[in-house]
Each structure stands twice: as structure tokens, then as C-alpha cells.
Amino acid sequence: MYKALNTIIDSADRNPKRNYQISTYKNKGESAMIKRIEVFKEGGFGDKAMKRLLVHDSPYFKVLNFNFKAGQELPIHSHDIEGQLSIVVLEGDGVFLGKDESEFPAHPGDVLISDISEPHGIRATSQMRVLVTIAPPI
Amino acid sequence: MYKALNTIIDSADRNPKRNYQISTYKNKGESAMIKRIEVFKEGGFGDKAMKRLLVHDSPYFKVLNFNFKAGQELPIHSHDIEGQLSIVVLEGDGVFLGKDESEFPAHPGDVLISDISEPHGIRATSQMRVLVTIAPPI
Q: What is the rounded CA–CA span in Å between residue B12 and residue A132?
């Protein structure tokens, strides 16, 4: 039988009070997880640089929200490790950055999928919100 | 030295011709991957049921786009396996579905994170586009 807890808290999250988590417990005392995060409400913008919000971190994936003002960027970079990431544009416009100074349009609904080891980045041309998912988590 | 191929093709994708992939090869002949998918252009809607687009599938995660007309849904379900998923609302409004007929608002930028083993679903109240990420892939 399940027991529903209609509040709560994921200790891995940085803004636990503002996450809406529905935590449940299964038969054998094993915990299960389901939660909802309002990224547009929780994620802010910064004058000096993009703002970062940790949405979720687990052994399976890490989910981050990056918010940019026009002109701000996540500079092109890579890590020499196994795994892939996605960058999803939630709002606003910009360009995805690839190696050799390549640039590709980034509009709402556009998704970049990349090996973590492949150079990648993003630059905003308007106020812009993206969601980044990294699997396995770094 | 890298060799850039400014064309295409991921054999795991269902619409290879319409994916914009920048495929590169590293020194040792090992392939690296980076690609861009325009989900709003590629994903369609169906009169009878939601439409599904495979955006990416790899050993690390599977990414799917589900598009709904108002009233259509991904019925509540679960799989008794390890892993977690995220459902990100890209456009439109609806409700996330949880067990015991629970419902939670789903608006642009809202993210549901759930164990794959935990009952979850989504129902659209307007035309709606979401992106689902499953790690590890089912």
C-alpha cells in the first residue's frame, strides 16, 4: 500500500522549500520519488552572468536550468568523460556553440544533443531559458 | 585533429533526414556526436491520439517529444524498472497525472521528475508539446 505525502523536499535540490514533491513509500519501505518543479518561477536572471538552478540530481541524470540575459553565454567547453547531455530551449533565442567557432540557431523547442566530450556551449541573443540534462550525472 | 561532417544522420533517429547533426571524428577514429533537432518543426499532432517523435536514443538516455491536442493524454502508467524520467512542458497547458488520481498543473517550463516505477502521466487541456527524457533508456 502506498502512503502519499503531499509536500516536501529533495535533499539534493538547492531550493527545497520551493519544490513541489510528491513523495511516496512502497510496500517494502522502499522510497519512490515524483516531484514537480516550476522552472520559470524558480530560476532567476543575473546582471553579471547567467544564473543556474539545480533542478534535480540523482544517480541517473542531473537536470539544470540556465537563464541568460541577452549576450550572456555558457562558454564552449567539454569534459573528457563518458556520457551525453541535452540542452533544450524553453524560452528566448540564441545560438548553440560547437567546435571551430561553429554556431547553430537555438529557438524555443530546439534541442542540442552532444557527447559530454564534444565541445558545446550556448549564447543568448535575447533573454533565454534552457534546461540541461546530463546522463550519467557529472 | 577533428574532421567535421556538416551533414547528418543518426541511425537511431526516425527522421534522419530532418535532423541537423554535426558529426565529428576524433584522432583515434572514435566517433563523437553533436546534433540539433528542431522539435517544434519535426513533431506533429494527431486527431486520434498524441503524436510521438523519437528525438534521441543512446545508452545514456532516450529523448522523446509528445504532442497533444486538447483532451489527449499519456495515460498514467509505470514500469517496474530502475531509472528516472523527466517531462518538460515546452508549450501549452495541461496536468501531470500521479497515482490515486492526483493531478498537478503543467505549464510551460514546468518539469515533472519521477522514478520510472512510480505511476505518472500527462493530460493536455490545450494544444501541448512536452519533451520526455528517460535514463537509462527503456
A: 21
Instruction: Pick the residue from chain A with its C-alpha nearest to B135.
Output: A60
Give the pLDDT of residue A17.
41
Give the model confidence (pLDDT) of A36-89 as tens digits. Answer: 999 999 999 999 999 999 999 999 999 999 999 999 999 999 999 999 999 999
Cα of B117 vs its chain's centroid, Å: 18
A92: cell is: 528566448
Sheet holding B110-115, edge to edge: A3-5, A20-25, A31-38, B110-115, B84-91, B128-135, B62-68, B51-57
B29, pLDDT greater than 70: no
Q: What local confidence, expressed as pLDDT, does residue B33 receive? A: 87
Interface test with A, best of B118, B120, B122, B138 (most A CBs within 10 A): B118
d(CA B126, CA B3): 45
Other beta carbons less than 10 A from residue B126's beta carbon: 12
Helix (H, G, I), strand (E, B) or coil at A95: strand
Q: What pTM was computed for the model?
A: 0.83
Q: Could you say which of B20, B63, B113 has the minimum Cβ distance to residue A56?
A: B113
Query: What CATH number has the domain spanning A45-135?
Result: 2.60.120.10
Of the candidate ranges B23-37, B50-64, B112-126, the one whose mean pLDDT is the lowest = B23-37
More confident site: A1 or B65: B65
Query: Hey, is the C-beta of B137 within 8 angstroms of any chain A C-beta?
Result: no
Q: Could you read off the pLDDT of B66-97 as tens digits, one per residue?
A: 999 999 999 999 999 999 999 999 999 999 99
Residue intervals in chain B for CATH 2.60.120.10? 45-135
Nearest to A13 by CA among A51, A48, A65, A50: A65
Instruction: Show Cβ contacts of residue B28 under 8 Å, excluding neighbours closer than 6 positions.
Output: none
